[in-house]
Amino acid sequence: MRIIIIGAGIGGASAGIALQRLGHEVEIYEQVTENKPVGAAISVWSNGVKALNHLGLGAQTAALGGRMDHMSYRDGLTGETMCRFPLDPITEQMGQRPYPVARADLQAMLMDAFGLDRIRFGRRLESISQEPGSVTVTFADGSRATGDLLIGADGAKSRTRAYVLGTERERRYAGYVNFNGLVDIDTQVGPADQWTTYVADGQRVSVMPIAGGRFYFFFDVLEPQGLAYRRADAREVLAQHFAGWAPGVQKLIANLDPMTTNRVEVFDIDPFHTWVKGRVALLGDAAHNTTPDIGQGGCSALEDTIMLERVLATTTLGVEDSLRRYQDSRTQRAGELVLTARRRADVTHAKDPEATRAWYEELRTEDGTNVIRGIVANMVGNPLG
User: Fold this and answer.
1) Which end of the chain, N or C, is more open, meaning fewer C-beta atoms within 10 Å of its C-beta?
2) Dihedral over Cα of 366, 367, 371, 377: its sign
3) How does DSSP assign 102-125, residue by residue?
4) Per-residue pLDDT tens for 89-142?
5) What is the CATH number that goes with domain 2-171+268-379?
6) Residue 132, class by beta-carbon neighbours within 10 Å (0-12 exposed, 13-18 middle, 19+ buried)?
7) C-beta of residue 306 within 8 angstroms of C-beta of residue 294
8) Would you say 26 and 8 are in contact if contact means Cβ atoms under 8 Å apart?
9) What kind and span of H or E run contains 239?
10) Which residues of 138-171 are buried (b: 16+ CB within 10 A; e: fewer)?
């Protein structure tokens, strides 16, 4: 079959790799003119790593990943360690170590594995039409492409989603802004083998080790939607929001480069269960836009890829039937993860201040059991076990 994929992000590129492996002719169309990943890094938990292993990218993924052996929460104001525990139980229970990975490195790996010569950059989706046996997409530059099926992996602001649902889907502001980037590892901020998170007043600051002796960092800031912002002001903005916080936080602010620090307003979309219209199917953020609070956004897109590959390899009643089976296998689990991330975001960011204070108190007696149970629960039910 000839397969068209809209979007060259994690979901689109991984789907391209998987479907090429089945022998299909695949082309990816991407609206940006060059690869510029949004966000500095991504947590690839064990379920996502298993998907990358399945695609033949296990060794490359391990080489890109940081060594994250421990997890710790610290009081954001005093720097006191609230809890610290090993992450070995995750690997033991899931059969695979998770990896924090620089998003640019992961994206480059996926694009190279798919084939850069088959990615058409600078193609913005304008419209989709279907005829019996085919689907045609028209781009803003007037060019067109026709295939046997179309996968819309065009992200949180997906135009394919509007076509499938027949209407735009409203995005919900989660109430906070995420500043993120990469810095050299500094043990005054946190150990080199540890995911360290400072929490206080409904905000958090976190560092995770990635390859190359670097930390992926992020600051969650309670700000209203739509504030004016200049990238050059990142350090000053964060210094204001985190005035009086622990020395490790101040050191991180001093170390970061404002011009490579991203600022992302965080949204999600209420789960929905229509992902398919004829020969068109949604994948990744287009189907299940989530907040990053449980680190399952990219992993969920990789799970979509595995299920899409599976139904196209094993069902024989036609494209429409296969895509419906893909939809039926994924919408409930993906939707549950969106809502789990939303609940986690509300507690982390003090939607109910009493609930957040209670969480802080729980962290002071945490031995890792409850945190690891929650992380593993988010991965149970993934297509690769």
Assistant:
1) C
2) negative
3) EHHHHHHHHHHHH-GGGEEES--E
4) 999 999 999 999 999 999 999 999 999 999 999 999 999 999 999 999 999 999
5) 3.50.50.60
6) exposed
7) no
8) no
9) helix 234-241
10) ebeeeeebebebbbbbbbbebbbbbbbeeeebee
User: CA 41, 369, 71 angle in degrees (round to 5)?
Assistant: 35
Rg (CA), the chain: 21
Under 8 Å between Cβ of 222 and 176: yes
Token representation of residue 49: 């790593």
Token code pair at residue 270: 């209420």
Query: Angle CA(371)–CA(374)–CA(378) in degrees, nearest 5?
Result: 145
Rounded CA separation 23/14 (Å): 15
pLDDT digits (tens, 9 = 90+) for 344-356: 999 999 999 999 9
Contacts of 59 (CB under 8 A, 6+ apart): none
Which residues, at least 6 apart from 261, have a Cβ–Cβ distance to it below 8 Å? 179, 180, 181, 231, 234, 235
Whether the per-residue pLDDT at 373 is higher than 90: the answer is: yes
Does residue 36 have a pLDDT over 80? no
